TrEMBL record:
One of its GO terms (biological process) is glycoprotein catabolic process. One of its GO terms (molecular function) is carbohydrate binding. Keywords: Signal. Coiled coil: none annotated. It comes from the Eukaryota. This is Alpha-1,2-mannosidase family protein. One of its GO terms (cellular component) is nucleus.
Amino acid sequence: MFYRGSFAFILALSRIGGCANSSIDDYDVLQYVDPLVGTANGGNVFAGATIPYGMAKAVADTDSENNQGGFAYDGSSITGFSSMHDSGTGGQPSLGNFPLFPYTTCKDDEVDGCAYPKKQRKTSYVSESVKSSPGYFGLNMSSGIQVDMTAAHHTSLFRFQFPTDMPSSPLILLDLSDLSDTRQDNGTISVDVTTGRMTGHAKFLPSFGSGSYVPYFCADFQGGDIRDNGIFVDARASTDVKDLTISRSINGYPLPGGAFVRFHSSSDNTIQARVGLSFISSEQACESAEAEIPDFDFNKTYTAAVDLWTEKLAPIRVSRNGTNSSTLTNFYSGIYRTMINPQDYTGENPLWDSSEPYFDSFYCLWDSFRSQFPFLTIFDPASLSRILRSLIDTQRHLGWLPDCRMSLCKGYTQGGSNADVVLADAFVKGISDGIDWEAGYAAVQRDAEEEPFDWSNEGRGGLMSWKALNYIPVEDFDYIGFGTLTRSISRTLEYSYNDFTIAQMARGLNKTSDAEKYENTAQYWEHLFRVDQTSFLNGTDTGFKGFFQPKYLNGTWGNQDPLTCSNIDTSGKSCSLQNNAAETFESSIWEYQFFVPHDMATLINLLGGPSEFVRRLDYLHDQGITYIGNEPAFLTVFQYHYAGRPGKSTARAHFYVPRYFNPTPTGLPGNDDSGAMGSFLAMTMMGLFPNPGQNVYLIIAPFFESVRITSPLTGETATVQTVNFDPNYQNIYIQSATLDGEPYTKSYVGHEFFTKGQELVLVLGRNESTWGTGPDDLPPSLSTNGDSTLNFRRDG
Ligand SMILES: *[C@@H]1O[C@H](CO)[C@@H](O)[C@H](O)[C@H]1NC(C)=O
Ligand SMILES: *[C@@H]1O[C@H](CO)[C@@H](O)[C@H](O)[C@H]1NC(C)=O
Ligand SMILES: *[C@@H]1O[C@H](CO)[C@@H](O)[C@H](O)[C@H]1NC(C)=O
Ligand SMILES: *[C@@H]1O[C@H](CO)[C@@H](O)[C@H](O)[C@H]1NC(C)=O
Ligand SMILES: *[C@@H]1O[C@H](CO)[C@@H](O)[C@H](O)[C@H]1NC(C)=O
Ligand SMILES: *[C@@H]1O[C@H](CO)[C@@H](O)[C@H](O)[C@H]1NC(C)=O
Ligand SMILES: *[C@@H]1O[C@H](CO)[C@@H](O)[C@H](O)[C@H]1NC(C)=O
Ligand SMILES: *[C@@H]1O[C@H](CO)[C@@H](O)[C@H](O)[C@H]1NC(C)=O
Ligand SMILES: *[C@@H]1O[C@H](CO)[C@@H](O)[C@H](O)[C@H]1NC(C)=O
């Protein structure tokens, strides 16, 4: 497409023969994927069985405070085994619909002798028994029941193995419940007297959005002879009743209700439950289950999942020379997490009729635009283009691109309209497969031009002020659309950057006057820069002058301490979507001062030039003002590149990895956010980090001797090969480089590196060098000219 191969720095070089990456053998990559990474301590990663982007996600649910992904590996109790989950999210847990729960036998052999409500039935598990791998999750309950599970696209398969050393008449219940107990009126369930098949549905609320959603299920059982079945309400059950419609009731907690099947004792004491899922109907859930897992073959279902994961992880291999399995597991587990969410609900969208794909669980784009979607652009472009088509189709039918979306509902907007970045990033990297880019452009342009009535859910707020004053004022006056009137600084910064990415698309689509317009509005961030603003830490002047500040409608400066909402702020100020929250979202002015991804050159000038800029960026990291556990920190690790100090970016990367990212359940510094952290880790360790919306990957020394990436689009293989690689990471500074055999001094490459299969050789050493430090070596900025100018500037 427009950008591919048109950079001036891509000289017409013939590839040098030979293959420097011969040390990379192929190997079974799934041995290095541990789905339990980040499943305790707030990582909130989904630990269970799923296929890539699958709708069925089977896992044990716990009553942990950190049960957003269902299972938390922290010793909390099991409340059930459910089939729908998100991964890595904060806030309220989402989904967790339709938990099953098994008993070996009921007390006194009476159905009322089993405990039905979640709060009473929950039970502990044997910690050492927890096993998880791609497509598989299993554990032993303290009751002696061994439970393991696997999944197909819309169907979970649970295998319950009951103890054989006690009398048994197993009972399995299905609860019309979810993780956050949001069930509304009127949940229904029916159990078939002869087969035990359970069908039904219920309405629930999304975890970080507006509206409601209705999932349907179809549960079948195999392996035991049915003794009887029926329904339960609260703590009482009956075999005489087969159908139930249940109210939420009034006590702020949905009245427990569901159905059960009881079995005769059987010789191998194994019963499997197959749960089909749909957002359309129970019939469709049954059809999917019958088609996807027709014969209840656990091994076959699991093997199919393994094959899918193996295929998804095929494009990338790193050299294992000198590298231990902990480093490899850190890396590949991060990659694995980028393909759990979003979820492919194509054919399951009840909201509109369309032949386009439908994906859900964008949770949230504010997190995932930074590295997750750029990662998929390289490694899974076919899925990425289907995801983009889904975003564009969502705008076509609902009017607006989402900034966050889950469970068929609109999610809350955290700042800008970051779908603009997601679309533009793929556009500048030449992703085209079936995408209507004119429709994509119309969708992002609407974000910039029209204010939605509820901009808490989509689009942008304050556009009247934005257009008249060219910034978002603190205490804005807005009677057109409504949302929380906070975050004026971070919204100004995000809208500016979003407009830059729209300009990128406009350039590529030959919409020259639009491009000029949005390149201009992309500079509005400068209006909130107050040159004489100081910052004090513990009463001592930090010595830096010039920070963003809030500004009122009348042009008068407001005031926010630049450290408010930073990682070291102890003021207790609200920093999220509360009505009384700060003018920066989930982060401080100190951190947001670096958020001009598209015009670092202008920012560096404003902050006093490259060395002052580096001093400031060091201060941000060294004083712990930023925290790598939240996404705004990501790009700050690499922004030294823009000041001609790429070596310091490598050093920062090694400061954070593995100190803050290690392959253990507690090994993530914050919510994984649907793979946002996973992709940050993967791209940092492979040594090429994106600045999204631009055809730019910032180069640092990889954490491996070499990296090999085969583009699924072109079949070409790109390699990053190091010379003097040191497994103890003493030699982390690039001394010199070649690209396809020619000397290369720029500190970045473009996407054609991957699609053309180029070869980057990096000679490493112990000290920072002059490599990548010259004015012509810097990554591009909107405002700069000369060799580091963005392609589009030259094109016009
Ligand atoms: C593996 O790394 C060592 C240095 O750590 C190097 O001497 C050796 O050549 C490398 N082996 C291969 C096959 O590249
Ligand atoms: C889990 O249960 C199975 C079946 O009873 C048993 O063979 C296995 O040893 C148990 N595992 C652990 C770690 O307790
Ligand atoms: C729930 O079902 C009851 C009983 O059939 C009915 O009266 C009521 O209108 C239903 N409520 C909703 C919200 O559908
Ligand atoms: C599972 O299936 C695979 C592939 O069909 C086969 O190689 C393996 O032996 C099977 N394992 C079991 C336990 O049946
Ligand atoms: C934009 O214009 C250039 C030069 O005229 C042309 O080569 C290119 O195909 C056009 N692109 C689109 C998307 O129309
Ligand atoms: C600031 O004060 C806090 C609380 O007294 C202390 O923990 C922190 O180390 C101080 N930081 C600096 C840079 O002085
Ligand atoms: C501008 O508005 C702010 C907030 O209402 C007020 O505090 C300030 O005095 C006003 N400035 C001028 C010059 O009127
Ligand atoms: C693996 O290697 C990394 C980097 O050299 C090191 O920090 C870590 O301690 C090693 N881990 C193990 C388990 O040896
Ligand atoms: C690296 O720099 C240190 C001083 O910072 C110096 O002592 C050392 O000799 C340098 N090493 C090389 C290989 O240049």
